[in-house]
């Protein structure tokens, strides 16, 4: 597919209006009725919801080091299948992304994929060990232009180290993305602490272990005048604390995962380790609270925490299984189910929480822009009327640890354009050589 | 019965039936020839990922008295300890033609995982999983209580109106969990007694009352006082200040023993920490059923294996 001009005819825009979208050489070149289709490949988008390409602020791509779970190539294929055009790659690879050289390597792996833009996240502390700061400035100044730093998987629990990190990243408009988990309160924790964990005999992960860290961190953030991002908010109490902090004018942003918007801790009753994740699935009251928080803006974005694991790490007794679930391929459908079908968000809100707001938090210019002339042509076409039993075949990454397999989910990604190049058409991923050729052509012209 | 994973699945009738079969089994054990031909040709595997000589021997005796072939598969020193997964072990046992697998595992839910996996077709008996359940312990406890109360007239009866105080580390106890569901199914009332650090916070909907005051609970005259073992790893993790204070407030010492009502029985699943949760005098007193519990364990486990393997199996 050498042609790099496309006309998406009759698409529904996030604001509900209908228009043709013209794409050429990697950019949106026209939005309106009856656009000229000469030389363009016409895609019938009538009845399809167009959204700006989705941006995931929390993806585990596993490469380098854990290529049996995922690679940058397979992870970005999963992203494209889910309508994502940009993913922020978490730092907990092996080696850990804690130097300029390593984040540049991650960036280069993303460029070699072409299915999505890969923006590295840098580690806060060397080796995620929580002892000394990683080279935050060098990562910020590198070709990867890192602005978001996280020890995700581990909490920066030392309050002094957290204070210093928050202070230090002010020099380059950075932010610390905190995995809020008080380590002493969660020793050996297996699932949400509550009646279900008591019955199943699984060690509890109490809500207060998340809330205590968030409360501390928003106060530290206020004290040093910095910027905090809270990863995967999962409890009603966390939403309350962040609401309070925002009302005080503290520069805090927050994310919720699709699974915390839809799934509850009683799913552990099966001891099926697909439902084991960190932070754990919570109660129905918590799910209602994070939905409400996302609807009222207390929670800024949805981020997947896509965490691939090979079968053998899930095909075992619950306490021996790894934490995490894949989420890129299912995220839009889950948000559709939990937030749009419930009337809590409209599609313009979805474009905000899954595209523009995460790009802004990550300070990634030119990404997450609305579908207007001059924007980078990151566009997804989504069939809101579809419904499907989510299946292993819907997964495009390397791992199959999805909690949604066998579950009915609404909607389907029909097409994804990354920098004007189709990565998904007719619901199917395009071949890698074609995607790469398309990206080279765009970069060559641009 | 397809599997025995949890007592929570047992109805009142099913529980009484198991206890009645255990009575039949106990009767055979008083005969001169104690061995029954019932499970001849069946293979029972004792798959123990955790050391528990007492429980393993009890299951082994139960299986052998029913003439089953017994394979002891201990994790220590085997391929299991070299990182072989539960899945691979299960598939090995399937190939060996196991009809029942008695599994003891440190991970809560491991027997469920085994039963739901499709890796193996055998009936699964949970012989203790992590801090989850230990259903045959609860069955032998209920059997013991029923015999104490009703003697030879036990058959067909439940435990209606009986009050059982379970004292100690409820939070980490698989014995307490299996007991509360079974006692409730049989119409008994359960009171959990212990320090607030060792009684779960979240018992919404559980058929159990909670007390932090052992003396107050004993003053209400419970029919059964079941003392739980305090594991040594609780000593240094701030659950209570020290063993002396624990013993003073929640131990069954001689003074509390003397205050028990005339018909109150004292139970302990063993092994006991004499002098910590139970005094030697309490453990050895006539009201203690500790030794009967061991003997009844074989009868209860014979009943479970019999019901699992003798054709009363429905899927
Ligand atoms: Zn995390």
List keywords for this structure.
A: about 450 residues, alpha/beta, Urease, subunit C, domain 1, TIM Barrel, 2 domains, 19 strands, globular, B: about 325 residues, Rossmann fold, five-stranded parallel sheet, four-stranded parallel sheet, 11 helices, about 40% helix, pyrimidine biosynthesis (chain A), allantoinase activity (chain A), EC 3.5.2.3 (chain A), zinc (chain A)
Describe, in plain words, how this protein is organized in 3D:
The complex is a heterodimer of chains A (446) and B (315). Chain A has 446 residues and is α/β, with parallel strands linked by helices. Chain A folds into two domains: 6-50 and 375-385 and 406-445, Urease, subunit C, domain 1; 52-361, TIM Barrel, CATH 3.20.20. Chain A is built from twelve helices and 19 strands. In chain A, the strands form five sheets. In chain A, strands 5-16-17-18-19 form a five-stranded antiparallel β-sheet. In chain A, helix 1 (72-81) links the parallel strand 6 (54-59) and strand 7 (84-89). Chain A is globular, with a radius of gyration of 21 Å. The model of chain A has no long low-confidence stretch (mean pLDDT 97). Chain B has 315 residues and is an alpha/beta fold. Chain B has two domains: 12-134 and 295-309, Rossmann fold (3-Layer(aba) Sandwich), CATH 3.40.50; 137-290, Aspartate/ornithine carbamoyltransferase (Rossmann fold, 3-Layer(aba) Sandwich). Chain B is 38% helix and 15% strand. Chain B has eleven helices and nine strands. Chain B has helices at residues 12-28, 53-65, 86-95, 110-117, 135-150, 174-185, 214-219, 243-250, 254-259, 280-284, 290-309; strands at residues 43-48, 69-74, 100-105, 123-129, 163-167, 189-193, 208-211, 224-227, 265-267. In chain B, the strands form two sheets. In chain B, strands 7-6-5-8-9 form a five-stranded parallel β-sheet. In chain B, strand 1 (43-48), helix 2 (53-65) and strand 2 form a beta-alpha-beta unit. The radius of gyration of chain B is 19 Å and the shape is globular. The N and C termini of chain B lie close together (8 Å). The relative contact order of chain B is 0.17. Chain A binds chain B through residues 190, 193-195, 197-204, 270-272, 312, 315-320, and chain B through 8, 85-87, 105-110, 112-113, 116-117, 129-133, 174, 177, 200-206. The structure holds zinc ion (ZN). Zinc ion is lined by residues 152-153, 179, 231-232 of chain A.
């Amino acid at each position: 597919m050498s042609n790099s001009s496309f006309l998406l005819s009759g698409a529904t825009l996030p604001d509900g209006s209908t228009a043709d979208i013209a794409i050429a050489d990697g950019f949106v070149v026209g939005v309106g009725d009856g656009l000229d289709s000469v030389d363009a490949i016409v895609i019938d988008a009538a009845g399809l919801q167009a959204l700006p390409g989705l941006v995931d602020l929390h993806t585990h791509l596993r490469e380098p080091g854990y290529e049996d779970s995922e690679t940058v190539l397979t992870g970005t294929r999963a992203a494209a299948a889910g309508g994502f055009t940009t993913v922020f790659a978490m730092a907990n690879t092996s080696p850990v992304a804690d130097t300029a050289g390593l984040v540049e390597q991650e960036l280069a792996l993303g460029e070699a994929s072409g299915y999505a833009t890969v923006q590295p996240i840098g580690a806060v502390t060397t080796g995620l060990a929580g002892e000394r700061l990683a080279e935050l400035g060098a990562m910020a100044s590198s070709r990867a232009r890192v602005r978001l730093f996280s020890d995700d998987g581990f909490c920066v629990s030392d309050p002094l180290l957290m204070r210093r990190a928050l202070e230090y990243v002010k020099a380059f408009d950075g932010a610390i993305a905190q995995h809020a988990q008080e380590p002493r309160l969660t020793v050996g924790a297996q699932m949400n602490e509550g009646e279900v964990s008591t019955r199943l005999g699984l060690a509890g992960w109490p809500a207060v272990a998340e809330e205590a860290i968030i409360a501390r961190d928003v106060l530290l953030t206020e004290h040093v005048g910095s910027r905090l991002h809270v990863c995967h908010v999962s409890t009603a109490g966390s939403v309350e604390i962040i609401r309070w902090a925002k009302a005080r004018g503290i520069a805090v942003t927050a994310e919720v995962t699709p699974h915390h918007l839809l799934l509850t801790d009683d799913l552990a009753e099966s001891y099926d380790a697909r439902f084991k994740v960190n932070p754990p699935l919570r109660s129905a009251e918590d799910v209602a609270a994070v939905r409400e928080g996302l609807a009222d803006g207390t929670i800024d974005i949805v981020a997947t925490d896509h965490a691939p694991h090979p079968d053998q790490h899930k095909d075992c007794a619950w306490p021996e299984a790894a934490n995490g679930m894949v989420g890129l391929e299912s995220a839009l459908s889950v948000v559709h189910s939990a937030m749009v079908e419930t009337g809590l968000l409209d599609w313009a809100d979805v474009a905000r929480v899954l595209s523009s707001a995460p790009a802004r938090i990550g300070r990634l210019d030119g990404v997450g822009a609305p579908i207007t002339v001059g924007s980078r042509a990151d566009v997804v076409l989504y069939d809101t009327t579809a419904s499907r039993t989510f299946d292993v075949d819907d997964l495009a990454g390397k791992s199959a640890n999805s909690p949604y397999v066998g579950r009915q989910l609404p909607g389907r990604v029909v097409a994804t354009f990354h920098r004007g190049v189709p990565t998904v058409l007719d619901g199917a991923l395009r071949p890698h050589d074609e995607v790469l050729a398309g990206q080279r052509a765009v970069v060559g012209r641009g | 019965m397809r599997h025995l994973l949890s007592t929570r699945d047992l109805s009142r009738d099913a529980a009484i039936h198991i206890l009645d079969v255990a009575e039949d089994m106990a009767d055979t054990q008083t005969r001169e020839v104690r061995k029954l031909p019932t499970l001849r040709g069946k293979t029972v595997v004792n798959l123990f990922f955790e050391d528990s000589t007492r429980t393993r021997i009890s299951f082994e005796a139960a299986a052998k008295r029913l003439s089953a072939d017994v394979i002891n598969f201990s994790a220590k020193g085997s391929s299991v300890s070299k990182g072989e997964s539960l899945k691979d072990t299960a598939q090995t046992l399937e190939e060996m033609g196991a009809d029942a697998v008695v599994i003891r595992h440190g991970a809560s839910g491991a027997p469920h995982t085994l039963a739901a996996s499709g890796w193996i077709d055998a009936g699964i008996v949970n012989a203790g999983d992590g801090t989850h359940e230990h259903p045959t312990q609860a069955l032998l406890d209920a059997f013991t209580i029923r015999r104490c109360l009703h003697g030879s007239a036990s058959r067909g009866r439940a435990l209606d109106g009986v009050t059982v105080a379970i004292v100690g580390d409820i939070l980490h106890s698989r014995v307490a969990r299996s007991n509360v569901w079974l006692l409730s199914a049989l119409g008994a009332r359960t009171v959990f007694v212990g320090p607030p650090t060792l009684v779960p916070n979240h018992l919404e909907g559980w058929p159990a009352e909670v007390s932090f005051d052992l003396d107050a609970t004993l003053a209400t005259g419970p029919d059964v006082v079941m003392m739980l073992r305090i594991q040594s790893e609780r000593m240094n993790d701030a659950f209570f200040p020290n063993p002396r204070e624990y013993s003073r407030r929640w131990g069954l010492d001689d003074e509390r023993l003397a205050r028990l009502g005339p018909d109150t029985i004292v139970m302990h699943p063993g092994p006991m920490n004499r002098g910590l949760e139970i005094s030697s005098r309490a453990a050895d007193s006539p009201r203690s059923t500790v030794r009967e519990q061991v003997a009844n364990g074989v009868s209860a486990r014979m009943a479970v294996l019999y019901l699992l393997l003798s054709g009363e199996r429905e899927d």
